[in-house]
Design a protein that fits this description.
The structure holds 2 protein chains of 2 kinds. By secondary structure, chain A is an all-alpha fold. Chain A has 2 domains: 35 residues; 229 residues, MetI-like (MetI-like fold, Orthogonal Bundle). Chain A contains 12 helices and no strands. The two termini of chain A are 35 Å apart. The relative contact order of chain A is 0.14. Chain B is mainly α. Chain B folds into 2 domains: 57 residues; 220 residues, Orthogonal Bundle (MetI-like fold), CATH 1.10.3720.10. In chain B, strands 1-2 form a two-stranded antiparallel ribbon. In chain B, a hairpin with a 4-residue loop joins strand 1 and strand 2. Chain B is globular, with a radius of gyration of 24 Å. The termini of chain B are far apart. The chains are: A mainly alpha, B mainly alpha. The interface between A and B is large, with 86 and 81 residues.
Chain lengths: 272, 292
């Protein structure tokens, strides 16, 4: 590139430097944590309980999976339906504006506020206590914006001809949506779901206040159960064991990595 | 004939049920927001009234055991930490976005973008842990202040807002029409002049959105801040002091608080909420003004 003078060269190097900082920080975090965590990461750690002499994270892994699955099951139908309503049904511009504004604000609310809300309504008033159920309902609302937005985007990008073609063949609107529009928006919707899974698995503040921190597998939706990120937080905060903390952090990073790859696979399918 | 009529009316009924369900879902989304606002405010406002708005917001002493509920130290702590995060994250983020959208080759761009996405996906508690075991000791070695400090939180939050800033800035930079760049170069402007005098100003509303979302992420972050801030409820007088954010105030004491103390924590949430709402409204107004 042609750089005219000294000042331009300085700016150019600043740009390069910033990019290196961004990339460097990511590598630093990953390498530092994985390097220290991998040593302690074995089957015994992954598959044993957390009680007495045992310091495994098996219950936390299961609880995390339960919370992810139940949250997705609640939020996806509502989120996808909201997006369908916005793109396919709503004719009143004002309603669309109100829903969009609500979604935008929901997306901006800090997770600790979701935690507070979940604690008053689900834990206290509805008396679900600290439980998977309280957490699921709270997190379900928290991930609505991600699902609504990605689904809406995916639905909007479905060509108009698909709808017109299907409708002109005499297919009803709802059949058109289910058989034509949703399938062609599938990968966009899936991307949203995976992003939401990532958000739930990494969430700490809201989970801590609604699901609680009992380090056992929750046997019902009304029981408390510590998730991986809450476990991670407690290990770091109490300084109980840095070995365990590094290893748990490594597991969380692996989950992040896997979800990230899933997004990539899903969106690659879309291109083909 | 009769059968046909039946299927038609049955279809209509199905159509009806589904469209009602879609509408209901949209209503649930709106109601969620309304319900969250109502519950947090209803639980928090009485405490603000009992303590007194001025005493609550401008009170410098937070000592629940003796009924002192002033959250000025936490408000200032959150604001300082957010400003610091912006000072670190905004320049690095925007310059990185400029690199990947304006300078990098297609292959390098394809390598860096997934890394930024990965950075966005890392759970906040991991950032906090990284801060605790890497940044805090580093600061302690350099400045001998124990390490837990405003500076540590600024650095960690600065890193955490990077992906938000980069992603949105990159999208808006790429949305600037090619002709802008071509015309500017044709007029004899250099590449750097084109980037900073033509492309960046044209992408201004997107970049501003990125910054505002970054502010939202920084001011709302809880666990990462708790792990590096030291959490003493005092006004920090330098970046090397310990401090406590509004979010940390809520998360740390919620576990054991009851009565007025618990309500005061909800009231802290109300103040935080008001910050977020003002931020969102401000951004909306600005974007409307720019697009007019």
């Amino acid at each position: 590139m042609l750089l005219k003078n000294f000042k331009e060269r300085v700016i150019y190097y600043l740009i390069i430097f910033s990019t290196l900082v961004t990339v460097g920080i990511l590598l630093w975090i990953f390498i530092f944590i994985v390097k220290n965590g991998i040593l302690h990461l074995n089957l015994k750690f992954l598959l044993s309980n957390y009680s007495g002499d045992e310091t495994g994270i098996f219950p936390m892994i299961i609880n995390t999976l339960i919370v992810i699955a139940s949250t997705i099951m609640i939020a996806v139908p509502i989120g996808v339906s909201t997006a369908i309503y916005l793109t396919e049904y709503a004719e009143n511009g004002r309603i669309i504006l109100v829903v969009r504004f609500a979604v935008e604000l929901l997306a901006g609310i800090p997770s600790i506020i979701y935690g507070l809300f979940g604690m008053v309504l689900f834990v206290t008033i509805l008396n679900f206590n600290w439980s998977i159920l309280s957490g699921t309902l709270t997190l379900g609302i928290m991930i609505l914006p991600v699902i609504i937005r990605t689904t809406e985007e995916a639905l909007i990008s479905v060509p108009k001809e698909y709808r017109e073609g299907s409708l002109s063949l005499g297919v009803s609107k709802i059949r058109t949506i289910i058989k034509v529009i949703l399938p062609s928006a599938k990968s966009g919707i899936l991307t949203g779901i995976i992003l939401a899974m990532g958000r739930v698995s990494g969430e700490t503040a809201a989970v801590y206040l609604t699901v609680g921190m009992v380090p056992r597998i929750a046997k019902s939706f009304l029981e408390s159960g510590r998730t991986l990120s809450v476990h991670m937080y407690l290990l770091a905060k109490e300084g109980i064991s840095f070995e365990e903390a590094y290893a748990t952090a490594t597991v969380l990073l692996l989950i992040t990595l896997i979800l990230n790859q899933m997004v990539k696979v899903v969106s690659r399918n879309e291109m083909n | 004939m009769n059968i046909e009529k039946n299927t038609v009316s049955k279809n209509r009924m199905i159509e009806n049920i589904f469209s009602k369900f879609f509408f209901l879902s949209a209503v649930i989304s709106i109601m969620s927001l309304v319900v969250i606002i109502i519950f947090v405010f209803v639980k928090g406002i009485p405490a603000i009234i009992e303590i007194g708005l001025m005493d609550f917001i401008f009170g410098k002493l937070w000592r629940p055991s003796s009924n002192d509920f002033g959250i000025l130290p936490m408000i200032l702590g959150s604001i300082y930490a957010t400003i610091g995060a912006l000072l670190i994250g905004v320049p690095i983020g925007i310059l990185t976005a400029i690199y990947i959208s304006e300078i990098a080759s297609k292959q390098i761009r394809k390598m860096i973008i997934p890394m930024v996405e990965l950075l966005a996906g890392i759970p906040s508690v991991i950032y906090g842990f990284f801060g605790l075991i890497v940044i805090v000791p580093l600061i302690d070695q350099t400045f001998k202040n124990g390490g837990n400090s405003l500076l540590a939180a600024m650095i960690i939050l600065g890193i955490m807002i990077l992906p938000t800033i980069i992603n949105i800035s990159d999208t808006s930079l790429r949305a600037v029409p090619k002709e802008y760049r071509e015309n500017s170069i044709a007029l004899g402007a250099s590449k750097m002049q084109t980037i900073f005098k033509v492309v960046l100003p044209a992408a201004k509303s997107g970049v501003l959105t990125a910054v505002v979302l970054g502010i939202g992420r920084a001011i709302g972050e809880t666990m990462a801040v708790i792990l590096v801030a030291g959490n003493s409820p005092q006004i920090p007088f330098s970046i090397f002091n310990r401090f406590r954010s509004m979010t940390a105030n809520i998360a740390i004491e919620m576990g054991y608080a009851f009565g007025l103390h618990q309500e005061a924590l909800f009231a802290t949430g109300v103040v935080l909420f008001v910050f977020i709402i003002i931020l969102n409204l401000g951004l909306n107004l600005f974007i409307r003004k720019v697009s007019d």
